[in-house]
Each structure stands twice: as structure tokens, then as C-alpha cells.
Amino acid sequence: MAMSGMRQVAVGVGAIERTPPDAVLKEGVPLLLESVPEHRRSAAVELAHWGYGATAGAAFALLPARLRRSRLTGPVYGVAVWGLFEVAVAPVLGLAHARRSRPRERWALLIDHVVFGFVVGTPPEAGIAGPDGDGEPGGEPRGDGSGAGGTGPEDRRRGA
Length: 160
Known about the structure:
Elements: H1 2-12, H2 20-28, H3 30-34, H4 41-61, H5 65-68, H6 73-93, H7 103-120, H8 153-157
Helix pairs in contact: 1-7, 6-7
């Protein structure tokens, strides 16, 4: 959804003539879009884009945890998703924009895929705080000497 917002701005300022989801549905699989009532096609294009993004986000979750912890992995992944579309998907579907030089549009799409990468990539310090704000789910303090508490549920029952 963050990319959709960026995409609307890019279209509004004239950096992008036609969004990739729109091109994919209108040029790559037109029969699919023609099966949608005309007054619902804009919504169908947007939902398709969200579906692509959700699929790419789910695929990101399959990367090894040690890679996902890096701040750079998300943006690099976003650029890779964009590159895959530019190099493979658009030419295979025969999209018109794949055959034109369009540097301003490519930069705009690259930037919104970097934003996508920041959204799907989780920075190492982004933990979910428990009710006590201790960074542990369920509010259980850690008993590891980290300064985030010191006793677990069994220790509290024993009076420790």
C-alpha cells in the first residue's frame, strides 16, 4: 500500500505514464481484465498490485532470518523484485514499456521498490513491546541479565 501511494504521486507528477499493474492487466493478460466490469477495473488493478506486493512480502519472509535482520536486506530485496519485473516479467508479457527508454519512469519505480523494501524489511531493533514495554511478547520479563527484567513465571511463583 505504501508503494501504491508513492505510485499515485509519481503518476500525478508525470514521472510514470502507466503503472506496471495497469500495463500487466491491460497488455499482458487483457482477457482477465475484460472479465471485470468496467466500473470496477481500477479497483481490480489496485487489488492485483496489492496481491503482487503481498506475495513478494511473503516470499521475503522465506529468506533466512540472519538475512532479514539486516537493514539493507529489505531495500535490496525491493530492488531485486523491481529488477525481476523489468528484466523478465515485462518482456515475457510483451509490455510496451519494456521496449522503450524511460529513465525517469524507471527511477520512480526503483524508488518505490526501495520504499517497499523498507516496509517489508524489519530493522533489528523493531521488537514488539509487551504490556510492560519490556520488548517481550506477553509482558514476560527476560531472565538473561539483559536489564529487561530478571525472573520468569516460575521464579515469581516461588517468590524469587
